[in-house]
Specification:
The structure is a homodimer of 191-residue chains.
Chain A: H1 2-8, E1 13-17, H2 23-36, E2 41-45, H3 54-70, E3 76-80, H4 96-113, E4 118-122, H5 125-130, H6 135-143, E5 150-154, H7 160-165, E6 168-176
Parallel strand pairs in A: 1-5, 1-6, 2-3, 2-4, 4-5
Chain lengths: 191, 191
C-alpha cells in the first residue's frame, strides 16, 4: 500500500509547450484544483511585461483573499518578474537577464523552503530559450526538489532535456487561430 | 475603426480537443479572464458523474460569491448534467442521452436569452461522439448564436465539422503522461 500511496502523491513536473493556445490558461486552471485542496500555490511569471496575466491575477488575488478571510482554499503567492508597479512597459529598458535570474532565485528559495505545493513557472521556457537562465542549473533544481512539490512550466519551445525530465508533457498544438484571419486580441479572452 | 472594433469583439467559438491534458483546465483558466472582466460565465458539464470538476467548482463558486457580495468580477452559473446532488454515482443508472439533451436544452435557452458572455461546454464532444446529441442541431445553435457570446467546447474527438465551424482550435497533444508509467490520479492535480 505504501507503494500505491507514493505513486498517488508523486511530485509532478509538468510541461505545457507548443505553438497553440492554452499553455498558461491550463496551468492557471490547474491552480484552481490546488487552491481547492487547500494547497499553497506560487505563481512566478517569467515574461516580458506586456504579456502578463491581469485576469488570472485578479482572480487569484480574490481566491487568496478568500483563504485569508475564511480559511477556504489555500494561499496564493504571485510574483511577476519585471512588470513592477510602475506599469506594463516598465521593463522594456531594463536587463531581462537580470530580472529572469532574480525571479529564478525566488523559485530556488521557495523550493528549498518547501513553501508551496504547486508552482506555476509561467513562460519559464522563454528565458531558457534566450539563454538568460542556465538550463543545467534549472534542471538540477527542478529534479532534486524535496518533498511533494508539483511544478508546472509553460511556454513554447520547451528544451528537449526539460521534456525528458518531466513527468507530464502536453504540446498545445495550434489547429486554427483567429489571428490568422486578421482578428485581434481582446480582453476576457487573450488576457 | 468600426471594422477593427468588430474584429476585436468578435464572438469566438473555441475548441479544445486531443488526447492530452489541459482541455478542460485551459477552459477554466479562460473563465478567470472572463470573470475578471465582469462577464457572466456559464459552465455546462456534459460528463459522466465520475469526471466532474470539484476543484474548479469550488473555486468558481467562491468567485461567484465574491461577485455577489462585493461586485468584483462577474457572475458564474454552473450546471452539471447528471451528477445531481445525491452523489457522484447517481447517474450510472439513468439515461445519459436524456441527461445530455436536458443539458443541451439549457444551453440553447441561455444562448437565446444571451445570458452569458462566456460559455464553457465541458466535455460536449462526448455526447456528440456517442450520438446522444445531434451534431447538426448543435452546430446550428452554436453558429447562429446572437450578440457577443463566446463558447468553449472541450473533449477529445471533436467532430471535424465542429472544428471547421470554430474560430480557434487547439489540440492538446499528449507527449508524456505519468499514468503511462503506472502513476495514479491525485487530488489537486487530476481533480
Amino acid at each position: 500500500m505504501s507503494g500505491t500511496r507514493e505513486l498517488r502523491h508523486a511530485s509532478r513536473l509538468i510541461v505545457h509547450t507548443g505553438e497553440g493556445k492554452g499553455k498558461s490558461t491550463a496551468a492557471f486552471g490547474l491552480g484552481l484544483r490546488a487552491w481547492a485542496q487547500g494547497w499553497s500555490v506560487g505563481v512566478f511569471q517569467f515574461v516580458k511585461s506586456g504579456s502578463w496575466r491581469p485576469g488570472e491575477h485578479a482572480a487569484y488575488t480574490a481566491l487568496d483573499e478568500i483563504h485569508r478571510t475564511t480559511g477556504q482554499g489555500g494561499p496564493i503567492e504571485w510574483l511577476t518578474m519585471g512588470a513592477g508597479r510602475t506599469g506594463l512597459r516598465a521593463t522594456q529598458d531594463v536587463d531581462q537577464q537580470a530580472l529572469s535570474r532574480a525571479g529564478w532565485a525566488q523559485v530556488v528559495d521557495r523550493l528549498a523552503a518547501q513553501t508551496h505545493r504547486l508552482y506555476i513557472l509561467d513562460e519559464l521556457n522563454h528565458p531558457l530559450a534566450k539563454g538568460w537562465l542556465d538550463l543545467d542549473e534549472v534542471l538540477d533544481v527542478l529534479t532534486i526538489r524535496a518533498g511533494v512539490q508539483h511544478v508546472v512550466v509553460t511556454g513554447r519551445g520547451a528544451p528537449q532535456r526539460l521534456i525528458e525530465a518531466a513527468d507530464l508533457v502536453t504540446d498545445m498544438t495550434k489547429v486554427k487561430h483567429p489571428f490568422d484571419k486578421g482578428e485581434r486580441g481582446q480582453a476576457g479572452i487573450e488576457w
